[in-house]
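Inverse folding, one chain.
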């Protein structure tokens, strides 16, 4: 009997969700006619679905309108407050979610909208928020200069792809008087999936173990019209908190100070180049003196040259002894080159 009741409940709720778009104003009547049940019974199903975040209602009694929890708004940047943008246009879609999810979403949206306000030179910003039982999906888009181009120009980098690599380190800002450069770094690690698309260059990060992903996707023209598009995705069932993310990248001796970073060495490559020269090594260690603990991840790096290793593990390590270098995921050849450099100077480096 219980199985029959459960099956009937699932059938009714699937019907409601399937007809949500085509019958926003008469959803109760259509469902009643199909299943021959009372208005009160349908109302209980609707309240349950709304509690799960699968639909939202507007109005009251027989004038209620039902729709999927989604909102798209385009806002003028002039005079825009990132806090107001979140409170007025994103938060209403997230009603009823756990506090940790709401705090993560607030952090991410306000950081990215603030970047658009201060750096994009765009006239408007578009914010789209979608919510289902299994996913919160937020997109923030502007029509400005593009985040990678902006960093490339302001930091006078050799290649626009070097701007992407610098961004992954953290503590990068083109306006140090007003920004710490921490916002995108921490936002990327709070969401289950974080990605940026800007004029054909894509940078992504997943919390499930795969770090930064970089490629040039074949996206449609509409997406390319936007200078920068940032995509934030998180499961409503995620249990981590923003405080845990901050703590993870705080060096042990500095309570909550952002002094630890994880650098994917492979991302620094341009084209088919190999890791042989001091200039390539200098590109990797640029700004790393800002951190007290640096994890250098050699995943997918097959080989490095002696000059490259020496520049990082002897020259840089000697110049900045307070910056602790920790190479990981190095194969046998890479490990030997690191040890060769260390044999000349035993500055603060751990080989793991």
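Residues assigned per position:
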């Amino acid at each position: 009997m219980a199985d029959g009741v459960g099956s009937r409940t699932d059938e009714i709720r699937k019907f409601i969700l399937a007809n949500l778009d085509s019958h926003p104003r008469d959803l109760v009547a259509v469902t009643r006619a199909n299943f021959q049940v009372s208005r009160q019974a349908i109302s209980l199903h609707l309240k349950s679905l709304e509690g799960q975040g699968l639909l939202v209602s507007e109005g009251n009694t027989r004038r209620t309108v039902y729709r999927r929890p989604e909102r798209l708004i385009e806002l003028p940047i002039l005079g825009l407050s990132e806090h107001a943008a979140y409170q007025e246009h994103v938060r209403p879609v997230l009603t009823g979610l756990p506090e940790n999810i709401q705090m993560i979403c607030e952090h991410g949206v306000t950081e990215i909208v603030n970047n658009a306000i201060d750096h994009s030179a765009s006239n408007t910003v578009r914010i789209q928020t979608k919510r289902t039982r299994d996913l919160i999906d937020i997109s923030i888009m502007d029509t400005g200069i593009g985040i990678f181009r902006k960093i490339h120009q302001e930091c006078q980098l050799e290649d626009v792809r070097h701007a992407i690599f610098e961004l992954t380190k953290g503590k990068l800002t083109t306006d140090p008087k007003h920004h710490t450069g921490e916002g995108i770094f921490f936002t990327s690690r709070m969401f289950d999936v974080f990605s940026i698309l800007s004029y054909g260059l894509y940078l992504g990060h997943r919390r499930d173990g795969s770090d930064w992903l970089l490629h040039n996707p074949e996206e449609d023209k509409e997406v390319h019209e936007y200078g920068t598009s940032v995509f934030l995705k998180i499961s409503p069932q995620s249990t981590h908190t923003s405080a845990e993310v901050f703590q993870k990248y705080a060096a042990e001796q500095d309570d909550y100070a952002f002094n630890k970073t994880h650098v994917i060495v492979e991302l620094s490559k341009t084209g088919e180049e190999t890791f042989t020269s001091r200039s390539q090594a200098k590109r990797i260690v640029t700004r790393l003196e800002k951190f007290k603990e640096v994890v250098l991840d050699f995943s997918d790096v097959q080989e490095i040259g002696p000059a490259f290793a020496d520049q990082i593990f002897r020259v840089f390590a000697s110049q900045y002894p307070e910056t602790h270098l920790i190479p990981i995921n190095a194969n046998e050849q890479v490990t030997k080159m690191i040890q060769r450099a260390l044999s000349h100077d035993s500055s603060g480096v751990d080989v793991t």
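The chain has a mean pLDDT of 84. The chain has 13 helices and twelve strands.
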